[in-house]
Amino acid sequence: SKEELQAFKDIPAETIDGKRFGMYGNIGTPAEAAAVLESGGEGIGLFRSEFLFMDRAAMPSEEEQYAAYRAVLETMSGKPVIVRTLDVGGDKEIPYLPIGSEFNPFLGWRAIRYCLSDTALFKVQLRALLRASAHGDLRIMFPMISGEQEILDAKRLLDEARSELEAEGIAAAAGMPIGIMIEVPSAALVSDRLARHVDFFSIGTNDLIQYTLAADRMNEKVSYLYDSQHLAVLRLIRMVCENARKFNVHVGMCGEMAGDPQLVEILIGLGVEEFSMSAEQIPLVKKSVRSLSEEAARIRMTQTLE
Ligand code: PEP
Ligand code: MG
Questions:
Q1: Which ipTM was obtained for this model?
Q2: Separation of 3 CA from ligand 1 center, angstroms?
């Protein structure tokens, strides 16, 4: 019942053997942040910033973006807020950007690939994020990373934006954590290398599953192949978690899989430490965490993956 789930709001997501897991919310607009708090979320694990760019005739200005990021940070009053930089392309169309139609939009000019080629647009977003970072615990996350060079390029642009702001006398938080989405199989496979450059990983299973199994996440004719529990997917998730632990990088998950109470045991068994999902799933996933043993989940997954 609703009352029963409400009871989970203020208690930690802790297993019966005393291991604690982070519970975060996914949002698309600043207004959704309040619901994450009401559901007992400990922060925002994914703010899909592309929603600020959609359904409009022109790109949002630096001021508009700054106001939106700041609003989320203020609602969350000191709790962590992970803002993902513009994830355009694929199924997310933004009419005023020159992406056009592609034969394989999910394999095309999207997300970080687009941003690294439209550096003027990207810099506006990075400046807005850096300015907002003075108002809370903001973390930046880059989407669709497929290898090391993209992280280096994105971080260089972030440093440039920071220096520009400094020269203008505008403060940005020092040491803001930087993370990447792990949603391309190549990124999972070289996650030991990628870990050197970032503070956290967030596994995006929506895309990771489609790319691993070569099954379009939008195409019903192949949806029978889109299996979140395919051994290949589970092995990749485990590899990412192991590399994260080895290199002291936090590892969370923000794809749909993270909000499924029936899959939490599998994910904990694979080594996922933080879960980010839509607000209404938070009490359900918490309830699930509180019913299981981390050690038993680990043992079971080790056997399953053999
Ligand atoms: C994902 O790919 O799992 C993800 C969280 O990103 P999106 O669903 O926005 O592509
Ligand atoms: Mg994605």
A1: 0.99
A2: 31
